[in-house]
Amino acid sequence: MVFVTMILAACNSSELSITEIQSIPIEVQDRINTDYTLQLINDSEKGEAYIIFQSSGTVAAQVEVRENILDIKLDSANQENNELKQYVYKITRGDSEYDTVNVIVNGQVTYFDNSTGF
């Protein structure tokens, strides 16, 4: 019983987080365009966002809020071939408040190719 409670509490965390996901919700799948390198898809009902990033390397992601700005940092390494892999990340807002989103790919500010929502 205690274990189940801990799992449920972790799922309802009020902290900002970014997690790579393998099981992509159908609403998100329907909006992914493989012609774009970097996409943002917002789920306004749940307050979550999905980042879709295509890279030929291994990607590490982290988020940080400073003042009213959300920094999404994507670092791509081991780019040995030109074969693109699609990475899908879910951002859970938690209690954090921000009105600006910056994406930083390998230290460079980058812009979304597309931003949409449902």
Briefly summarize what is shown:
By secondary structure, the protein is mainly β. 12% of the residues lie in helices and 48% in strands.
Structural summary, described in words:
This protein is mainly beta and 118 residues long. It has helices at 2-11, 26-29; strands at 17-20, 38-43, 48-55, 58-66, 69-77, 85-92, 100-105, 108-110, 114-117. The chain is globular, with a radius of gyration of 15 Å. It starts with a helix and ends with a strand.
Fill in the keyword field for this structure.
four-stranded mixed sheet; 12% helix
Summarize the helices and strands and which ones pair or pack.
Blueprint: H1 2-11, E1 17-20, H2 26-29, E2 38-43, E3 48-55, E4 58-66, E5 69-77, E6 85-92, E7 100-105, E8 108-110, E9 114-117
Parallel strand pairs: 2-9, 5-7
Antiparallel strand pairs: 1-6, 2-3, 3-6, 4-5, 7-8
Report the portion of residues in β strands: over 45%
Based on secondary structure, the structural category is: mainly beta
Give the spatial strand order of the biggest sheet.
1-6-3-2-9
**SS element count, helices:** 2
Distance linking N and C termini: 36 Å
Oligomeric assembly: single chain
**Helix and strand string, N-terminal first?**
HEHEEEEEEEE
What's the main sheet like?
Answer: 5 strands, mixed
Please state the average pLDDT score. 86
